[in-house]
Design a protein that fits this description.
The chain is of the alpha+beta class and about 180 residues long. The protein has one domain (about 10-175). The protein contains 3 helices and 9 strands. It has helices spanning about 35-50, 130-140, 165-175; strands spanning about 10-20, 20-30, 55-65, 70-75, 80-85, 95-100, 110-115, 125, 155-165. Strands 1, 2, 3, 4 and 5 form a 5-stranded antiparallel sheet that branches. A hairpin with a 2-residue loop joins strand 1 and strand 2 (about 20-30). Helix 1 (about 35-50) packs antiparallel against helix 2. The chain is globular and about 40 Å long.
């Protein structure tokens, strides 16, 4: 299978602050979409996961059209939104939550976010482990035109979400 360029689809980049650091997540879009539609969709996902977030705030949303590598700020309606509460122990600062799937075109896709405040000993939230993760998986499996694969096809999102600790952010926490 030939690799596709990163600019193969339109992309939204959400820049957010969680656990003392700025992060970003890129979400692919296809078909009819708009910044406000994206804001509504992303707010829905974050609201479902709200009980398991440590405090997380949205700084800005950028957009790059299909075929472009240039991201420009857009107004989506979620700028300034705050989700979750509290600050996790320093040990949990580099923890991420990752939803994964595959498109019918064979391309893997992943949506990862930092700021999760719930531990999981086997590094995977399986169905039934955490109700909010189950609801988020269902939300991603049933909503569109967002969270697409690099080929623009809606992926089949796996019924679980992985979690772990990013080595880059682990090193940043060392003094």
């Amino acid at each position: 299978m030939a690799a596709l360029p990163p600019s193969n689809t339109a992309r939204y980049k959400v820049v957010y602050f969680a656990n003392g650091h700025q992060h970003s997540v890129i979400v692919r879009a296809s078909g009819a979409h708009s910044p406000s539609g994206f804001g509504t969709w992303f707010d829905g996902l974050m609201t479902i996961l709200d009980p398991i977030w440590s405090e997380l705030s949205i700084n800005r949303v950028d957009f790059a059209a299909s075929g472009s590598d240039i991201f420009n700020p857009v107004t989506s309606g979620i700028e300034g939104n705050v989700y979750g509460s509290g600050t996790p122990a320093g040990l949990l600062h580099p923890q991420f939550l990752a939803f994964q799937g595959r498109t019918s075109g064979g391309h893997k896709t992943r949506l990862s976010l930092y700021g999760v405040g719930v531990e999981e000993n086997d590094y995977r939230f399986n169905t039934g482990d955490v109700a909010e993760v189950d609801a988020a998986v269902t939300y991603m499996q049933t909503t569109s035109p967002y969270a697409k694969g690099i080929d623009g096809i809606t992926p089949t999102w796996y019924s679980y979400a992985n979690t772990g600790f990013n080595a880059y952010w682990q090193r940043k926490e060392r003094t």
